Amino acid sequence: MRFLTAGLACSLTLLCAACASSGTSTAGHVRPVDVPPAASRADETAQWWYRSGAARAAGNGAMGGHAKNVIVFLGDGMSLTTVAAARILEGQRLGGSGEEHALSWEQFPNTGLSKTYNTDSQTPDSAGTMTAVATGVKSHMGAIGVSSGRRFDCEDSRQRHVQSWLRLASDAGLDTGIVTTARLTHATPAATYAHVPDRNWENDVDVPDEARAQGCRDIAQQILDFAPGRGPKVLMGGGRGNFLPAGERDPEYDDKVGQRLDGRDLTAEWRAANPGGAVVWNTAQLRAARDADAVFGLFEPDHMQYEHDRNRGDDGEPDLAEMTRFAIERLARDGKGYVLLVEGGRIDHANHEGNAYRALDETVAMSRAVQAAAEATSADDTLILVTADHSHTLNFVGYPTRGNPILGKVRGRVSEDDDPNAYALDATGLPYTTLVYANGPGYTGASNQQPAGPKVHFHKPSSFEPSDGRPDLREVDTEHPDFMQEALVPMRSESHGGDDVGIWARGPGSDAVRGTVEQNVIYHLIVQATPALRAQLCATGHCNADGVPVDLPVMTPVDAPLRAAD
């Protein structure tokens, strides 16, 4: 997947950087980029998405950016309602009424909105959305690093590989890193390094035989597909099982083993490719690896634990803020610039599970991580961008009085004569919570797992019975971490929402973050604001006369696993 040899790339990068330093491009005043109108979906090709995204970013002035480093925070499923409710929760935990509080990124100077739909779906999934954020090209539901096509068609997808800003940064000689609380092979992190038409192909067991015969490879092994010395210096998250061979016992849990049937131990292959690196699986090991050249942290066989549930001891797992500080310290060490993805991955999972407590708690944990990044970097040289991939069906309802517990039942007036300190009642005379879900497992009818009434986390039933009215919540502790908010429509898993999500930014180029943009524009805002990234694209012939990257880079699929020498 290399475009040029390292030496030639370096020479052309320097030449292109010198060219870009003259003329109008560094001032951000570039001529408008012409984009042909898309008369139909057939006209929305990968190149069209790429060029149209470049046009919007350049029109917003992103070419005036001069970021040395980029940190992208992605709150998976972090809807605007989730942000607002988490803001209040953190404010109330700090002793205030909550509404006046602000999460760390809400103090950033520049904001915008992102339109999240996939090419084939009004309400999107995390794979297609993160592919848009990471590559500048919108794609289908389930797509990981490939442009829009048929989801399960391996052969077709091999002609549609698209390059992420993480791989672009690696080619440009910058350091890179990925931090997530989900599996490292899950949709958001995977879209920065892997290429498959179906997000579920996380390890070799998951790849259909036909797809394997056509040359498609699982997501986990693609984490090794970097030129020597160019791979991520920091990889941290969950998902050990996808990297270890079947039969090999998990280092933490006696009852768990690796999941790979191809016999490969990808952690051992990573060690061989990174002789000065360390593979770690708990907090103590991570802290002991501070001086390692590279770190591969796999803290759980599956997703990492929720912040509320995690083991905070040395034999447990670090929180997102600690992983973020560690990553920044390591990536900044060599001084050549870096690109880092940090994902609050479990916000999404808690929303799917109909449990607002954990969704908000995970959002607050990400706020601490963003604050840690802001304190560890300078707005003079580091662009920090915070966004989400998609929304959820969490709703903020009623007329609760100022300072009412965000996870509590609504107390407040519906009419002028109401007592503001009494429970607000529905039309049947029953109280209700401020936060509810439009659908999901919190439906109050009896399920095959729990009786009728309020549901308790964790609840993932396979069947429901119709509810007989609403439950009486007066004696129910709705602020308990395991309380599940009521859901209108019974579903095994709550769904995503199709509404816009926020973008918040500070640092060089962040003033281009404004207005409502297509989600793939985020890639172009990042690339255009970072001279090393746009220079790499210019060096490989993908820029126009003003130095704006407008032509989609073509990638050649890797046909064989890149194994380190024994």
Automatic annotation (TrEMBL):
Cross-referenced Gene3D superfamilies: Alkaline Phosphatase, subunit A (3.40.720.10)
The keyword Signal is annotated on this UniProt entry: yes
Domain of life assignment: Bacteria
Signal peptide (residue range): 1-27
Keyword Signal part of the UniProt annotation: yes
Family statement: Belongs to the alkaline phosphatase family.
Name of the protein in its database record: Alkaline phosphatase
Lineage of origin: Bacteria, Pseudomonadati, Pseudomonadota, Gammaproteobacteria, Lysobacterales
